[in-house]
Design brief:
Layout: E1 7-12, H1 20-33, E2 37-41, H2 44-50, E3 53-56, H3 83-95, E4 100-105, H4 107-120, E5 124-128, H5 144-165, E6 167-173, H6 180-189, E7 193-195, H7 203-215, E8 221-226, H8 234-244, E9 249-254, H9 266-284, E10 290-295, E11 298-303, H10 304-309, H11 316-325
Parallel strand pairs: 1-2, 1-4, 4-5, 5-10, 6-8, 6-9, 7-8
Antiparallel strand pairs: 2-3, 10-11
């Protein structure tokens, strides 16, 4: 069903992801092509509550496709979690005659969007922006590819010093509930092991594995640790292994927020452009309460409730591949 929308709001929320600016650019320019006014909402839901709005024209989003972060800023809003806060946000939207929203973010952003849509019947379309790549309904999320490239570059440099000193490095990467970054980083960097939230690994297994590595006279190795794994942080795991296996010089590195920053990769820029463009078209087609994604290189619409609540599984073949290539 086609619909006529004259004015939309766009915002970024939750954790920043490389490619958000590229997607904002696509949203604004696609809307301008269709003669739709665009209002940028600063600092996500918090800015919506405070009425921190600015009009956006196609020139306002020039020269940002290569920039990391988000020029609209982002924040997490406790007030938006309350009915009073959401009512205040909707009041500002009505005052500015905003008829629909495009939300750029991840799980938390879309959870808020789904509730907001149900309460006020406001059309909302989501664009998946999260380095964790954990949203169901899209093969890749915006920012994931750049985050992996950043992590791999860091691990490559860590390998240089590890080999120079015969060290066993435990390298922690982001991924609170999902091991996508860890698994792809491990494969791309040729790591010796990877510890994931989705696959049970014990200290006994690690000790046994690296005892065998030591017997082979290979005293340098890398273990990629997803921050959300059940064994604990990279530092905690390293201490437990070192206590039981003192033949290695053990070191720990946490890559941390480096993975969020930096210029987005070409892949993320293209993905962000496709999804920002598709989000505007989805609204014009009458869709709402959905996330736009890419499935097998085709644009796909997934209801927020499925994108949020359905589990996106790791490719088990990739886990097996990582294990075999680490021999």
């Amino acid at each position: 069903m086609k619909t006529t929308i004259k004015k939309i709001g766009v915002f970024t929320s939750g954790g920043d992801a490389p490619g958000m600016n590229a997607s904002l650019r696509a949203v604004v320019r696609t809307a301008c092509f269709h003669n739709i006014e665009v209002v940028g909402i600063k600092c996500g839901y918090e800015g919506m509550i405070n009425g921190d709005f600015r009009p956006l024209e196609k020139r306002d989003v020039g020269n940002i496709i290569q920039r990391g972060g988000t020029f609209l800023k982002t924040a997490r809003s406790k007030e938006f979690m309350t009915e009073k806060g959401r009512a205040k946000a909707f009041k500002h939207l009505k005052k500015h005659k905003i008829e629909a929203l495009i939300a750029l973010g991840g799980n938390g952003t879309f959870t808020g969007a789904e509730i907001f849509h149900k309460e006020f019947d406001l059309p909302i379309v989501g664009v998946p922006c999260t380095i964790d790549n954990d949203l169901y309904g899209t093969d890749k999320t915006i920012g994931f590819d750049t985050a992996v490239n950043t992590a791999v570059e860091a691990v490559d440099k860590i390998r240089d010093t590890a080999e120079s000193h015969n060290r066993l490095f435990f390298v922690e990467v982001m991924g609170r509930h999902a091991g996508f970054i860890a698994l792809h980083t491990a494969i791309a960097s040729g790591a010796g092991s990877v510890i994931l939230p989705e696959k049970e690994t014990t200290i006994d297994e690690l000790v046994k594995h690296y005892a065998a590595v030591a017997k082979s006279k290979r005293m340098t190795s890398l273990v990629i640790v997803a921050e959300g794994n059940p064994l604990g942080s990279a530092d905690e795991i390293a201490k437990k292994v070192e206590k039981r296996l003192d033949v290695f010089d053990v070191r720990v590195t946490v890559i941390g927020h480096l993975q969020r920053g930096g210029s987005p990769s070409a892949y993320d820029r293209v993905l962000a452009s496709r999804l920002g463009f598709s989000a505007v078209n989805a609204l014009l087609e009458g869709h709402q309460d959905i996330m736009v994604g890419v499935d097998n290189d085709q644009i796909k619409y997934t209801p927020f409730k499925y994108a949020i609540n359905n589990q996106k599984d790791l490719n088990l073949r990739l886990i097996r591949l990582a294990e075999i290539l680490a021999i």
